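User: Hi! I'm working on a homework problem where we have to compare a predicted structure to a textbook description. Could you give me the structure for the chain below?
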Amino acid sequence: MVRRIAQGEPHTASSAAQVFAFEAAVIHPPQRTGWRDIHARAAELERNPRRAAALARARQRLAGELFPQTTLAALRLRHGLSQAQLAERIGTSQSRLSRIEAGLDDPRHSTLLKLVDALGEPIETISRALATTRSPHDD
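Assistant: Happy to help. Predicted structure tokens:
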């Protein structure tokens, strides 16, 4: 949705610009009948201790296969955690953790310390993992 919030005089050099506010919304299609939300299904599986342990082992195997470098996602998977589980441990949302892992959100120092506690890794390891996630042109 685009909404004009200010308009200058069209022929004046100092106020010829228009100011617009852009609002973006992601509209998800309705879920198909008989289909289940993946997050709800994963949470359901995590309630069963045997399945939760199997999912943790699968995440650990994936970490080795998918991440040759140590990123935050790799550390999380090596510890057998889902994004939702780590997000809960550090007191944030899964979507914010996803943005941090993707290098789109630069966490505060307090979040860094929570990651250290939740993953049991030294702060240097977490810092390097976050730096690895970010692309070289981000700085």
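For your comparison, note the following. The chain has seven helices and two strands. The chain has a mean pLDDT of 82. Good luck with the assignment!
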